[in-house]
Amino acid sequence: MSLTFFPINKQMYDYAVCHRSHHSDPVMVELRKETLALGEIAEMAIPPEEESFLSIIVAASRVEKAIEVGTFTGIGAMAIARALPVTGKLLCCEINPQWISIASKYWAKAGLESKIEVRIGPALETIKYLKEDRFFDFAFIDADKQNYENYYELLLPRIRPNGLIVFDNMLWKGKVVCPDITDKDSVVLSRLNEKLKDDPRVESVLIPMADGVVIARKKG
Ligand SMILES: C[S@@+](CC[C@H](N)C(=O)[O-])C[C@H]1O[C@@H](n2cnc3c(N)ncnc32)[C@H](O)[C@@H]1O
């Protein structure tokens, strides 16, 4: 059998993180610094390689309308918004206004504020009550794991054919592959991985990047 994957070490990871566009974007560097200063909770932020991945797929698929579910301090949102055309819009759903007050400062510094709309509150409610004619080319799901499937089912009808849904944390630090780990979040994410691979409405792949990123393309 050929080698299909290989583990990487910290040196290789750091090398990869430095060898990408935007690696020294001054506003992003500053935002990451303020996020890191929050302490342990900073772990919620997406890592640098995922930030670049989001920018590239958003630009390459010519996304105009995007939605992010779970924004935290706005790193992913900044990566998505900077890749949108000037007329593009990103709707950010976040329950905690404290995070948005940090995010907004940096979005303004990066000149992205006109592209970003924020709805504070439980994302399920925000999405349920969106206007019927609100459609998206791209969704990034990165909030409470228990509702991942609900977000998927609510958003899929609002995604245009060939549009993309990206789910973060789908390896859940490896817990999805451990049958003896039965906490609710692990079970929910593991079930969603099973569902997505056979869901005839989408074509999907679980990319072993960061904490596991699923990208699902809505079939036309
Ligand atoms: C993993 S973090 C998001 C990280 C972010 N996408 C980034 O790019 O760094 C998850 C976020 O979801 C938010 N959240 C949790 N439950 C939520 C809910 N029911 N509705 C909206 N946001 C929620 C949390 O406050 C937190 O900021």
Automatic annotation (TrEMBL):
UniProt xrefs under Pfam families: Methyltransf_3
GO MF annotation list: O-methyltransferase activity; S-adenosylmethionine-dependent methyltransferase activity
Signal peptide limits: none
Biological process annotations from GO: methylation
UniProtKB keywords: Methyltransferase, S-adenosyl-L-methionine, Transferase
Gene3D superfamilies in UniProt: Vaccinia Virus protein VP39
InterPro entries cross-referenced by the UniProt entry: Cation-dep_OMT (IPR050362), SAM-dependent_MTases_sf (IPR029063), SAM_O-MeTrfase (IPR002935)
Record-given protein name: SAM-dependent methyltransferase
Source organism (scientific name): Methylacidiphilum caldifontis
